[in-house]
Predict the structure.
Amino acid sequence: MLPVILLVASLFPSQQVYAECVDRGATTAATETQAVRGQSGAAAVLKVSTSDDHSKNSHLCNANYQLLITPVAGGSPLAVDILTANDDYGRTLSLHPDGFTRDGKRVLGSFSERSKRTATFLFDYDSSNGNVQLVDLNMQFSGILSPSCSAALEVIGTTNSGDIILEVNSAKACGAARRWAIKSAGGKPRPLPQGAPILGLYEPKGAAQ
């Protein structure tokens, strides 16, 4: 049988969506976030579609993550494949697009899968070359943050050199630092000193505060 995405929570102000892979004998279903906005009316939506993996030797849920990019207002959306993950039914999927960088060239965000373990990935889409880079936050923060704290990381901006700045959005204690800088190409995360300059993500004029 094929799984269906069951929406278990509505959109929060942070654009986060939760869904669950469950088997209800339905056709392939999809869930997507509201759009984050960039310059000139550009928009980005994070989407996940699920289906049975159709393997003869397993019965797993296949989750396909995509970014739907509309470069300018009124333009046609472009589907950018991010990752296809194959794992257990019943796992919780969390989609979290954070926004465009100030220069409008990159879209940053994250998504998590939670079942027996938690896997959290940061994505960095670069419109100048069409490439997507993925960072396994559990791996990068291994020995620094717990998996639950890694899943609570949100992108709040970039450094002047383009490194991604993450902030822990959690009420629980998650180490001495709340803000971290990381390169999407890899490398050890480094705590961001208090008062360090941040280039915040793009905010359209008139956006709600």
In short: The chain has one domain: 3-200. DSSP finds two helices and 16 strands in the chain. Residues 1-13 have pLDDT under 50 and may be disordered.
